[in-house]
């Protein structure tokens, strides 16, 4: 048996943390009853001791996942269960069976490297719906050291056969009746209004350069 807490130091319905054989535990006291559960949320691995109590539930402080603090079973999804460990009380000492902890750790190896960056707060349950979490973690830990000034680069990942072809975007101009004049050619500014009239109106217009 191993002492993990002094009962007199526990406050009612205020989660407390303990670490035994590299396994995080969360302790919840409710009057005379004391529960010791696996101390990591099954969603993203947050410390449950950083959460709070609402009614009969221990609520994760990160994304609000709930677990009954007396059983470890989630009311929202009964398939999500925090393992509940066997406890013993000797006077003011709260004791736990180290062999049970070792068996749990063997079956559920802990992924946290507590000596590395972010340590016990590392996100060990990355999800495909949040593709930039790893990118943010890399920048926070190493800055641009590993990826260079311009950040990550990769191929577009688009099959060239799905891209537009030149013949699909080229503009085909209509046939010109007359070739356009070059810049040095002189042009007339005379305008005839009603060229077929008995007395057409002829105007000599001046071009003004502004």
List the SSEs and their pairings.
Layout (H helix, E strand, L loop, with lengths): L1 E5 L9 E5 L2 E8 L2 E6 L13 E3 L2 E3 L6 E3 L18 E4 L2 E4 L1 H10 L25 H10 L23 H4 L20 E4 L7 E4 L6
Commentary on this structure:
This protein is an alpha+beta fold and 210 residues long. The longest helix is centred in the middle third of the chain and has 10 residues, at 98-107. The protein starts with a strand and ends in a 6-residue tail after the last strand. Among the domains are: 2-107, Rieske Iron-sulfur Protein; 111-141, no CATH class. The chain has a 3-stranded antiparallel beta sheet with strand order 1-9-8. Strands 2-3-4 form a 3-stranded antiparallel beta sheet, with helices on one face. Helix content is 11%, strand content 23%.
Give start-end ranges of low-pLDDT stretches.
none
Q: What is the rounded distance between the termini?
A: 97 Å
Radius of gyration: 38 Å
The secondary-structure class comes to: alpha+beta
Query: What percentage of residues falls in helices of 4 or more residues?
Result: 10-25%
The percent range for strand residues is: 15-25%
- The number of strands is 11
Shape: rod-shaped
Neighbour order of strands in the largest sheet: 1-9-8
Q: What's the story with the biggest beta sheet?
A: 3 strands, antiparallel
Q: Please, how many helices?
A: 3
């Amino acid at each position: 048996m191993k002492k993990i807490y002094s009962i007199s130091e526990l406050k009612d319905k205020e989660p407390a943390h303990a670490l035994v054989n590299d396994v995080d535990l969360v302790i919840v006291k409710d009057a005379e009853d004391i529960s010791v559960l696996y101390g990591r949320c099954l969603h993203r691995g947050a410390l449950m001791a950083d959460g709070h109590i609402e009614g009969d539930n221990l609520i994760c402080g990160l994304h609000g996942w709930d677990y009954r603090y007396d059983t470890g079973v989630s009311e929202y999804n009964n398939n999500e269960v925090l393992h509940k460990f066997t406890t013993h009380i000797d006077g003011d000492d709260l004791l736990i069976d180290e062999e049970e902890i070792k068996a749990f750790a063997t079956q559920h190896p802990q992924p946290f490297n507590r000596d590395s960056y972010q340590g016990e707060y590392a996100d060990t349950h990355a999800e495909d719906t949040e593709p930039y979490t790893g990118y943010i973690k890399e920048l926070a830990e190493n800055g641009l050291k590993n990826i260079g000034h311009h950040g990550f680069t990769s191929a577009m990942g688009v099959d060239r056969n799905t891209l537009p072809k030149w013949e699909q975007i080229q503009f085909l101009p209509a046939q010109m009746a007359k070739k356009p004049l070059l810049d040095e050619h002189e042009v007339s500014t005379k305008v005839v209004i009603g060229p077929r009239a008995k007395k057409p109106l002829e105007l000599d217009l001046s071009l003004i350069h502004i």
